[in-house]
């Protein structure tokens, strides 16, 4: 019988039992892809990560949802950094290898921050009217310049005119599959509104045929940084409020400098640990 040790951490959390939960398996060097997927399905969280050896960075992080592996996601990388730091006695500066890129991270002011690669943008084929219908919103609620943005995890970003519009949106799964599928055929939508120095956002995806809402999405925050740079709304420093509508409030710190460098951060709170025996 083999024993695998894991940690549960909450990322983007400002208080216990908030934020976006993550399971992190330590020392997953000999795990097969099939076993990692099975363990992610067993944990049944939005993502589960597996720490492995890397010749290019301090560690490699494999990221799995219950449906499969992801090249990059923000909250799994930040949460894994906290676990790796604890395993290494408090390391506060590191690089982590993901399938998308080598990600630099550091711990400062009680939160972990990562830097992402430059984003690419492309316009969706759908009209504003079609996107509004997809979100069950009046077309007047949508602002211009919806884009697919990719800084490691391509998603459709849709800007709306008010926080109330963010709260009211109710995506239609069949229309998401038609209008919000990225270049890999995965339907992912990030709806956001900026009010001075705070952004309100919600993130939706179709996973295994079901509509899910993620409480705190670091990759989407990174993509938003790319959007802000492309639209010359930099330098900027802001906080993204996400997850309140589903009872898991997250606060994501986003900074974009005048050179287009995007930094995403948040607090990581350890909540527990355990073992799985197979």
Question: Which features would summarize this protein structure in a list?
Answer:
isomerase activity; 40% strand; Diaminopimelate Epimerase, Chain A, domain 1; 18-stranded mixed beta sheet; 6 helices; 278 residues; alpha+beta
Account of the 3D structure:
This protein has an 18-stranded mixed β-sheet that branches. With 278 residues, it is of the alpha+beta class. The model has no long low-confidence stretch (mean pLDDT 96). The protein is globular, with a radius of gyration of 18 Å. Helix 3 runs antiparallel to helix 5. The protein contains six helices and 18 strands. Strand 10 and strand 11 form a beta hairpin. The chain starts with a strand and ends with a strand. The chain folds into two domains: 113 residues, Diaminopimelate Epimerase, Chain A, domain 1, CATH 3.10.310; 139 residues, Diaminopimelate Epimerase, Chain A, domain 1 (Roll), CATH 3.10.310.10. Pfam families: PhzC-PhzF (PF02567). InterPro entries: Phenazine_PhzF-like. GO terms for molecular function: isomerase activity. This is PhzF family phenazine biosynthesis protein. Belongs to the PhzF family.
